[in-house]
Amino acid sequence: MGRHARPTRGGNLLSMRSRQQTERQQLLMESSRAYPSRDGRK
User: Fold this and answer.
1) Where would you tag: which of 2, 3, 13, 15 has the fewest CB atoms within 10 A of its CB?
2) Contact by Cβ (8 Å): 26, 18
3) Tens digit of pLDDT for each residue in 10-39?
4) The pTM of the whole model exceeds 0.70
5) pLDDT tier, 42 (very low <50, low <70, confident <90, very high otherwise)
6) What is the DSSP letter of 40?
7) For residue 29, how far is the Cα from the chain centroid?
8) What φ, ψ does residue 20 adopt, rounded to 5°?
9) Phi and psi (nearest 5°) for 7?
């Protein structure tokens, strides 16, 4: 997914930010999967 992202000056910051976002999304998805009733979905 991050193939177009190259490790350039400031690219590290961008990659780190995208990594944090992806990790957060994964955590959210895992939490929602572990607790579907909490998400409010039926």
Assistant:
1) 3
2) no
3) 677 778 888 899 999 998 888 877 766 655
4) no
5) low
6) T
7) 9
8) -60, -40
9) -70, 80
Name the phi and psi angles at 10, rounded to 5.
Answer: 85, -10
Q: How big is the chain, counted in residues?
A: 42
Taking a C-beta distance cutoff of 8 angstroms, is the pair 16, 5 a contact? no
Q: Is there a contact between 39 and 28 (Cβ–Cβ < 8 Å)?
A: no
From the CB of residue 32, how many other CB atoms can be counted at a distance below 10 Å?
13
- Distance CA(16)–CA(13), nearest Å, equals 5
The region, left, alpha or beta by phi > 0 then psi within -120 to 50, assigned to residue 9 is: beta
Residue ranges of alpha helices (H) inside 1-42 are 11-34, 36-39
